[in-house]
Amino acid sequence: AGKFGAFVNYAVGDPLADWWFSFSGDDLTHPMPLCLDSMTHGKPLTAAYCDGKVCGFTSDGYYFTFEDGHPESMTFSDSAKTTEYARGMSYNHADGKLYAVLDRSVCTVDTVTGDITALFDLSTDIGCFAIDCFGKAYFIEDYATDAVLYSLDLESHAETPIGSTGLPIEYKQSMCFDYETGKLWWAHSCYECYGIYVIDTDSGTAVKR
């Protein structure tokens, strides 16, 4: 399985809150914490791996980048700032572009400057977003008692419901593909439960790891 990275969020009173962790899909029990300096531009909200670096947006709307495995190298773009809520990001290997969903707007993001180009709007709020290695996008609807996985055609903008994940959804989420195995991983959370899941992209069913 591939290597994953993630920020820790909503760890009230936890000294590891907002740290960046690196771990393998083969072993979720031994993540490697990589400390971040004090965040002066808001807390990390969403991010994606792209060409050897991690790109993302903070809760204050600033675009940031850092070298993979070295969050201490994080830099911010003061010129690229959004007032919209960043709900998910993913790099599209099929067209070589970085995508983000800001509120309901699907956008491309310049990986160097962070400049945003709005493409189209989704019909609903989403909890998380990912693109597979063939350029097919997926999202999970937000604030649902039985959240549904959708596929999204980035060219036609067609949204197609696939099936129920079997889980409620609220708060920050993230999901991404392991390009080595083709599996869709979901960092799930809601008021009553949380965990790491693998989602079947044919049925929408989520299985806890």
Q: How many alpha or pi helices?
A: 0
**Strand share of the residues?**
over 45%
Instruction: Tell the overall outline.
Output: globular
| End-to-end Cα distance | 13 Å
Percentage of residues in helical conformation:
under 10%
**Main sheet properties:** 4 strands, antiparallel
Class based on secondary structure composition and strand pairing: mainly beta
Biggest sheet, strands in spatial order? 4-5-6-7
For this structure, the quaternary state is single chain
> Which sequence of SSEs, written as H and E, runs from N to C?
EEEEEEEEEEEEEEEEEEE
Number of E-state strands: 19
Any idea what the radius of gyration is?
16 Å
Contiguous low-pLDDT stretches (5 residues minimum) are: none
Mean pLDDT: 83
Descriptors for this entry?
209 residues; mainly beta
Any chance you could write out the topology, listing elements then pairs?
Blueprint: E1 3-7, E2 20-24, E3 27-34, E4 44-50, E5 53-58, E6 62-67, E7 70-81, E8 86-92, E9 97-102, E10 105-109, E11 116-121, E12 126-131, E13 137-141, E14 148-152, E15 159-164, E16 174-178, E17 183-189, E18 194-199, E19 206-208
Antiparallel strand pairs: 1-2, 2-3, 4-5, 5-6, 6-7, 8-9, 9-10, 10-11, 12-13, 13-14, 14-15, 16-17, 17-18, 18-19
